Amino acid sequence: MRHNQQLKSIFVYAPIEEVEANLSEIGFQCVGSSTIVADGKFWKKMLYVNKEETISVSEEIGDAYPKDPVITICGSNHTISSIIDRVKN
Amino acid sequence: MIESSERFLVNRKISLHDDARYGPSTLPDVEFEKYAALLFRKSIRSAVFSRTPFIDDFHKRMYDQGENLHSSSNLNFPRFSIPYYSVEYSINLWGGTYFFSFDALFNSEIRMEKRKGKLLGKEGSLIHVLRFKPPAENVLNINLPKEVMVFDVKNMVKVIDYTSNL
To answer: What CATH number should be reported for the domain whose range is A2-88?
Structure first.
């Protein structure tokens, strides 16, 4: 399974709640979150797991606008295209 | 790199820091809310005071009600600060070294506990206790293709900057 996985990193215009709902619908569960600081900006980073596939979702916190969550998917082509279809539409 | 068939070695270094880099005054509101039971401030980058007496279990310090924990005129030197992991990924590629680094703040946990001590009496008193929990390691990972080998170095020596106490 692992050898069929691909990497894809995208940012989306959808609010974080919508992204989370979409991931939950296709079987991903949030297993942890952390506040990270990179380049002086604060981000909330969440990790979602479904079997061997993992997705990290990062959203800038603070006064940033617009807040475009960054999604990094390590999963099958099917999972990647499914997520892109859901969050981009 | 991802498209290449070459194999690459990624170095990851995680080190624990407690050098007063992140004080409560400069935290975004969403992050500051986690400490709202203990601390209050007017807005970001304004002075932070303790709302109630509490014990910072990580630093083994007790703060009284109304203490100034992060002065707005001295933002670089907070009296109360949040420890963090400094996470650094680096890769050597065709003679150059490329870095990706970030800091991961410890999570807070606030509980009421009965503690004894000089200020709390021999019988002990109920007081708020703040603990810092390190972030889960899997959240610190970055997704990498299976061809990439990660050479992991953990440096868990506590780095303390005492200049903030001077």
So the answer is: 3.30.160
| B88-99 per-residue burial string, b: 16 or more CB within 10 A, e: under 16 | ebbbeeeeeeee
Distance from CA of B106 to the nearest CA of A (A): 8
**Exposure string (b/e) for B24-35, b if CB count within 10 Å is 16 or more?**
bbbbbeebbebb
The alpha carbon of residue B19 is apart from the nearest alpha carbon of chain A, in Å, by 15
Q: What digits encode the pLDDT tens for the residues B38-77?
A: 999 999 999 999 999 999 999 999 999 999 999 999 999 9
Q: Where are the domains of chain B?
A: 9-165
Interface contacts A/B by beta carbons within 8 Å: 64
Chain B residues lying within 8 Å of A42, measured CB to CB: 27-28, 31
Chunked in runs of 10, what are the mean pLDDT values of chain A (89 residues)? 74 86 93 92 93 90 78 90 82
Q: Where are the domains of chain A?
A: 2-88
Q: What is the pTM of this model?
A: 0.84
